[in-house]
Amino acid sequence: MSAGLSSGGAVPDGIVDAHVHLWDTGAMRISWFAERLGLPRRVGPDDLARATATSPVPVRAAVAVQAADTEGEARWLAAWAAAHGPLPGPVVLQYDARPGDPAAWAGMAQPLLDDGVPVAGVRLAVPGGAADLSDVAGLDALCAGLAGTGRLLETLVRPEQLPAVAALADRHPALDVVVCHLGLGTGAPDEAWRAALADVAARPRVHAKLSGLHTAGPDDAGRVALIARAAVDLLGPGRLLFGSDWPVSARVAPYAEVVGRTARALPRLDDAAVSALWSGTAARLYGITG
Asked: Which domains does the chain possess?
């Protein structure tokens, strides 16, 4: 265990970071990128290696989640992962539906899957969409395709959409689902969110990332502790995964501080739970070995 972290937030000898991003705005368009966000124009594997090297315990692998939703960017990300794994290692591509092509159940990602490019899963990022996810074209075909090929579904949703994620899990019981940022992110952990998380947690193959939670607010430590403890209570540590959300998180705190803040927010856990949360569950879900 690493010195300098609270006993409640002890971490194992290695971390699998389940949520990082890479991009290069000079090589491809990132639709949401804006200078006002204060983010670097390029973030590559070398930058990731430097950031993770500051962690209080070694980061042995990282899951790269596609930042935008174009095929060119997806191929760029997959090529970097193939050349620089395990930092980054597995890739998760964004879902952008192709309703005119019934064979493209994975949407934009389908050509990569057809070409045999290693893809661990696909992310549905629709926090601004309908609460019941009814506006997502081809959603059930996507889930069936992922389950049938041994891949997982990630969801980036708001709290009101969590019951729809639970319903999706009911319709596709063979599918592993990972909820990014606990379906909350930097929001307030109110009773409505907790009830929605409890609903989705009742499905045994739904998991969630302890990621994207931290803010620069003076009372942030207490807020994140409430979130983390609710997540442990409802999902159990064996269905939670640490994710840094780097480099977006670097706007709030350096990589090592994000690790430390997350560790200190957690309740006291036994060694098996600590190992699962910080590395084991991510390694299992994303097929990381070694």
From this structure: 7-286 (3.20.20.140)
